[in-house]
Amino acid sequence: MLANDVKRILISEEELQERVAELGAQISEFYHPDSRPLLVCVLKGAYMFLSDLTKHITIPHEVDFMATSTYDGGLDAQGAVRLMLDLKANIADRHVLLVEDIVDRGATIDYLLRMLKQRQPKSLHVCSLLDKPERRVHQIEITFLGFTIPDEFVIGYGLDIDEMYRNIPFIGIPKQELIDRLISE
Ligand code: IMP
Ligand code: MG
Is the C-beta atom of 172 inside 6 A of ligand 1? Predict the structure, then answer.
């Protein structure tokens, strides 16, 4: 069982579902019903969050995808951000909402915000499931936030360790043995 590799559940499936529903309602209120916002899912980590979130958004909207990676893998990626997949949509004059799994150092979102701003969207906001403010390097304004978490490495609900464990339906802290086994630094 994948869940056996979790030391502690930080946010349960029920808590996640409840909060995601609230965020969907907030987003539905925030945008004008005719504004047709574009939700941009930052792959891979935000895939599960986006799919649950959109079910709770009651105004017409579109989804699109971007992917980034850092040169440095591992638990503590500090390399430069690199774009792996760009949007299909033209965002000029559109309302854009970036949907992220977690804002940690802030490098990924900072990079994406700078890039998207140059394309002159009508508005540009961030929705992140998690915020880990203790490690922040880049100042990021998160308009819609799920949970603030302590400086712990977490997995599940889209977040991975060595590309696995994304499918766990809650947010958990992996056992040290798992970290040692998968991450050789
Ligand atoms: P940032 O650029 O440091 O803000 O990092 C953002 C990216 O690092 C996130 O989109 C995640 O993919 C990854 N990340 C940061 N913290 C964690 C974590 O605790 N677990 C899994 N992935 C994480
Ligand atoms: Mg991510």
Answer: no
